[in-house]
Design brief:
single chain; five-stranded parallel β-sheet; two-stranded antiparallel ribbon; 12 helices
């Protein structure tokens, strides 16, 4: 049976989305007994989820009331504001199951305890949810778990250098060189509706590699092309990909030649 690679966004949905989305994500993963995830998803989990939990805990700790904590989360703006506010509501819901919520000092302490636990649980969930990890990249950053130090968590992702990183991204790009060339060809004939800023970064990375036979991986390069890396891992594992990142993977799957299963997050979520 074909392996099903579960993208990072699905793993985050399991931790933060509404009950309808969580049930659908659990079902989609269970449909394949050979589920797997990309090692690079651990890097994305730290940067796109755990770092926001740490930021939310800081905002809760600074606040003099629940109202202020909610405002601080909401005022962060963009995706991280939505994720932090959803986490705040999730943990309030969990705490409300024990009866009326206590006054702010006690509630603040309980929230901080829950957020601390969520960091540990989220990391363990990703590392144990799937039966296999695909890591042709051998990414050093994917081996670095969040660290608890001096009374607080850190999920810092160091900039990659030759001194602190062992990486096989050059070999992965070489192995899939013909697929990357197909990506450039297909993108060259695509209409504007099929293009996005994120997809253009993937194409630029492929173009640079085809031109130079070199991947400029030092710094934060890989974090700007996460969808492409997950796509190449999917191809290398001869797997199908489950993801809600429809715009990017709809195009990448046709260009690179892997099966993409869309998780219809927008249609499922509560309205």
């Amino acid at each position: 049976m074909t392996r099903r690679l579960v993208d990072t966004d699905i793993l985050i949905h399991l931790r933060v989305a509404d009950s309808a989305v969580v049930r659908a994500a659990e079902t989609a993963i269970a449909q394949s007994p050979h589920s797997c995830h990309a090692g690079f998803s651990l890097v994305e989990l730290k940067g796109n989820y755990i770092s926001y939990l740490i930021l939310l805990a800081d905002k809760v700790a600074k606040s003099g009331s629940l109202r202020d904590a909610a405002a601080r989360a909401n005022n962060s703006g963009g995706r991280r504001a939505r994720l932090m506010f959803a986490q705040l509501m999730r943990h309030l819901d969990l705490l409300s199951g024990n009866g009326p919520l206590p006054n702010w000092p006690q509630l603040q302490s309980l929230l901080l305890t829950h957020l601390d636990s969520e960091i540990v649980i989220a990391w363990a969930t990703l590392t144990h949810l799937c039966s296999e990890r695909i890591d042709a990249l051998h990414c050093t950053r994917a081996t670095e778990a969040p660290v608890y130090r001096n009374g607080g968590w850190t999920a810092r992702i160091p900039r990659c250098t030759r001194a602190n990183t062992t990486c096989s991204i050059d070999q992965v790009f070489q192995r899939h060189r013909s697929r990357l060339q197909d990506l450039l060809t297909m993108y060259g004939t695509a209409d504007g509706a099929a293009r996005s800023d994120e997809l253009s970064r993937h194409v630029a990375a492929a173009r640079e590699y085809i031109r130079t036979n070199n991947v400029p991986w030092e710094g934060t390069f890989c974090r700007s092309i996460g969808d492409l890396l997950v796509a190449l891992e999917t191809c290398g594992a001869n797997a199908e990909l489950l993801s809600s990142n429809h715009r990017e993977h709809r195009f990448l799957s046709r260009a690179l030649g892997y099966t993409y299963i869309q998780f219809p997050y927008a249609a499922i979520r509560l309205k």
